[in-house]
User: What shape does this take?
Amino acid sequence: VVGIDGVTFAPPSFAKRILENRQPTLLFFDEISTAPPACQAGVLRIINERWIGDTKLPDTCRIVAAMNPQHTSAGGGELTAPLANRLCHLPWTVDKEAWVRWGFQRSQPHVTMVGFIRTKAQALLAVPKNENELGNPWPSPRTWDMAGRLIESNRALGGSTDNEIFLVGGCVGSGFAMEYLNWRSKQDLPDPEILLAKPDAWKVPERGDTVFTILASITTAAMSNLTKDRYLAAWTLYYKAATAGKKDTAASSILPLLRAGGTKSWIGDADVQKATKKMLEPFIELLTQAGLMPK
Assistant: This one.
């Protein structure tokens, strides 16, 4: 910007937004290792001193950068020594349980994948060791999510289950796709809407992974249209699983529904409180630890 006092550098749009926000902000440099050395040099003063040209970022602005390991980054390499020396380096691993909790809130295909990941944790992230295979499909939290969304779209469009073989394989690789689809076919999973309509008719399976996947599907289905009757039906199914020796398996499913039910006006109704009092008993310790029940 040319003015009467000389030339100054106009701040980039993101710096303007930070200055105008007047709230604590986070400046995030994603995939920073993909920047060439000349560009990495350009952020040294930003990271160390919070200066962008002639603009000083406020002290309430925190600066974070992220990068993948060199062998999995998109054309990236190592950081230059000056940039690496200006950062605190913290390794970040995939949290399977966090992904499981996230999957509960997505779709029925995601919930089924959650059941599979619970039985085969290494399938959530399996980076190929052979460099030649890195350009092919392989499983990661991102590609499992892609596969779940594609299955959901395929079903919405009336596509065949044969399509799912190609769709899942195109996301996570044919090997993991076949393993997942074979596992799913052996579960013989019932329609969660049928179970919510007739919860008393459900016979609890022996296999823990099957029970987990069914109850996870129940939670997702009930939360998609949470009424008093569907809430109570879901609790009936949880209680049946608990009394059949599957309390720990059922525990993962109850917390999302309990939190969702707590937002409904009918949660304090006498009939709801009376019906759930007994069904809550197997889970009191868990709910107390989660802060959802008083000690």
Observations:
- The first helix runs from residue 13 to 21.
